[in-house]
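Bench log. Compound arrived from synthesis this morning; before running ITC I wanted a structural hypothesis for how heme C sits in the protein. Inputs:
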Amino acid sequence: MAVLVGCSPRSGATSKPAESDSTTYKEAFPLQYSSLQGERIDEKGLKKGHSINILRDICEAPLARDRNGDILYNEDGTVNAASYEYDEKTKRYVLPELSDQQLKEMALFTGCLSCKTSKFNDLYEKQGASAFGSVYNADAKSVVDGEYFDCGMCHSGSPSAGNVSANLMYFKALGEGFAEGLDPKTAVCGQCHNSYDYRSSIKTEGDLQKFRPYRYGTDMESLFKANYEDGVNFNVDKETGIATCTMVHPIVELFQNSPMAKLGVTCVSCHMPKTTDQESGSTYTNHFAANNPLESEDSLKYCLTCHENQGIGSTDEMKSFVQQKASGLAAAHADLKAKTDSFLSALETAIKSEAKDSATLDQARELYAKATWFERCINTQPTITVGNTVAMSDSAALVAAGNAACDEGMALLS
Ligand code: HEC
Ligand code: HEC
Ligand code: HEC
Ligand code: HEC
């Protein structure tokens, strides 16, 4: 029987020392590791978190997916299983062994990993740009080795406060310096919570160089222009040629234009507060970044360092203040949605009746696309409650821009 020397069961004989692995640093930094595995149930009853278990399901589960390999959520945030077995004993879904052909049909691509683990960087080194479109089979799984949301995504080498940076290649490759220009404590989150919808279009190194979403600027108006031109983040109706925005979570782009970003607040300031371990009394950075800051006393106390000036006296009051702002935004969003729906009917009628020349109709199509774009900037994904980006965006400007696009378009058609 052959004996492999120097090969642990976790890493293949050819893999280099695991610089980024959570398992490597789990024991040295137990508080950071265990907080990173935090999970919670949100107001819609959905499980949220960056834990290895949640991210594994997102990348590996045989669920209905779009061309990028992203899970397709229903309006209410639920998902549709393509094929599944549930093990009552372990309370986990048992994933069937799928052939490469089946993986392809299900759109289970390694591109999904480009914003889930730094192991994607290793796959990219091996496979080049085709790593975005190849199937997530056993070979690729052995490279990832269960290291979802690993330390190496945000730390270079042994984790410390001094080596925080965005390390995932996808965000940086298309970003033209955008990532590098952000505060590292915003960039680390932005490497996944961004507007990118290019994965299924990247087949070659040339594509990686060609796509430049920020070529007109990083504000939402400029980003719209680039996305509309590139034909990403829109679903085009074949019959009418009407494009409707399908973008999800452009959080980092929304955030940099928000009032609080301009004051130097970062994603980490609100989502990863410093906390004290009850047992040892030591202070550390809470790595449960997917927590809702409104459910964290540490986060709410941080808000008060500024908001006390507005007469907000307690963490409970701070929570109510945000919830009130969020309901206001949800109401404004409902109005905007109703307006885009009327715009759509008017546009469909105008296209069918050929009452306007084709240049005018194209202009109206673009304005409709823009209106739905700003609608999606507020309603960022089916799994969230509308309005809860209020602390992270200049929401008044988004509402105004969406309404302006509707008004301008309706005027063209009248
Ligand atoms: C490797 C990609 C990645 C990085 C980096 C990342 N996230 Fe996430 N985040 C995700 C994914 C994927 C989910 C969805 C998981 C789920 O369904 O709960 C998520 C979920 C969340 C949620 C819960 C969303 C909800 O619907 O309620 C919050 C909040 C969040 N992330 C904040 C952050 C912050 C803050 C940072 C930076 C410190 C960060 N994330 C870094 C990928 C990432
Ligand atoms: C999503 C990005 C992200 C990931 C992933 C991440 N960290 Fe961190 N880490 C941070 C940030 C941000 C800080 C705080 C930096 C600061 O305060 O200036 C930090 C700080 C630390 C520190 C310094 C001490 C402290 O608590 O502030 C340690 C140790 C640490 N992380 C360990 C880990 C370990 C271990 C892992 C993997 C299990 C990990 N981190 C994964 C973002 C991350
Ligand atoms: C000023 C504090 C603050 C900052 C800065 C901040 N957030 Fe949030 N974030 C919140 C609050 C508060 C909520 C929950 C609001 C609610 O539930 O009504 C939230 C919710 C979220 C959610 C879930 C909602 C959604 O639309 O998906 C995600 C994801 C998220 N934040 C990511 C980020 C990222 C990424 C950054 C940086 C680009 C960031 N946040 C910066 C306070 C902040
Ligand atoms: C560095 C100071 C500072 C911190 C820390 C801070 N804020 Fe703010 N925040 C402000 C200021 C200033 C404004 C008002 C900006 C304006 O009205 O132009 C504001 C506005 C807001 C708004 C209203 C946004 C709108 O569109 O009306 C919300 C919601 C909010 N903050 C939530 C939070 C939450 C939640 C936290 C903590 C997790 C927090 N803030 C932490 C300074 C801060």
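What the model suggests: The longest strand covers residues 39-41. Confidence is low (pLDDT under 50) at residues 1-15.
ITC booked for Thursday regardless.
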